[in-house]
Amino acid sequence: MSDLKDRVKRATATDEQQPEQAPVTDLAVNDSALQWLQSRATYFTDALPRHVDRAHFMSVALSIMPNLEKCTHASVHQAFLACARFGLEPDGKQAAIIPYGDTATFQPMYEGYIELMYRHPRVDSVHFGWIREKDQWDYTPTEPSPRDFFHKPRVDLSEQERGKVILAYAFAWIDGRRSQVILLNQSQAEAIRNKYSNAYKKAERNGKQDSAWHTDFDAMWAKSCVRRLVKVVPTSTELAELIRADDDADDSQAAPPVIRGTVIARNDQEDKGEQQTQAPSWPKPAQPGSTSEGGEQA
């Protein structure tokens, strides 16, 4: 009898000691995002340049959808369309789609600028790099190219051992000749930020500190350096449009619908007595055996 009681006690104790099961992932959100993207796939794939793999672009787009679930459908649609139009993947390297409140915003990164520069038939290659404190480097602007600049990183040391970053640089090879070298230190990057970035100024005023300059200073430093290189490389219409789109994306007041999405300002809504924009809800995934409806208009 005592053996039975002991067995029951041990079984009960085992049940109590079992760890709580992790919550089951709700796949409905991913299914809804996939359904929404599939309903608009033609818009994006038709806008892509021929050299961009369509399946890979859509896969990258799907991977970032959880970050955009609170954004309006219209702004998400327009941000993906801007990425597709320039042939830049929204992977955070070539381009990023950043949620500002309920608005998904397209923002090209420095690798995106390099990608568009490289597409020009006269551009052989584009180079970007960081110079750290213990690297060997020299810049003598009076020397002829390419003897005016050299950089030899200390590959025998870790990044921490090489010291902090002191300079960003970029240059291109055009028709077999090296362009001017663009050098940008941290103070110069901060001066560009303080003078030109409306998103940074707005974030500072609001006390949110959620602009790209706040969250990823090095990426914006790199982009500022590469953007200066635009002045010394052959400029295509596509590259000029990317610069305008980038500037518009930074200016939350003047950004056009193709970048910002057709979102009515909250102040205008209050003046007109309209209701506030409701949080978007992704379409429910079709149930097995049911007939799926066409995607909603952005």
TrEMBL record:
Where are the annotated segments for Disordered? 1-24, 248-298
Please report a single Pfam family linked to this protein.
RecT
Biased composition range(s): Polar residues: 288-298
What is the source species?
Answer: Streptomyces bullii
State the protein's name: RecT family recombinase
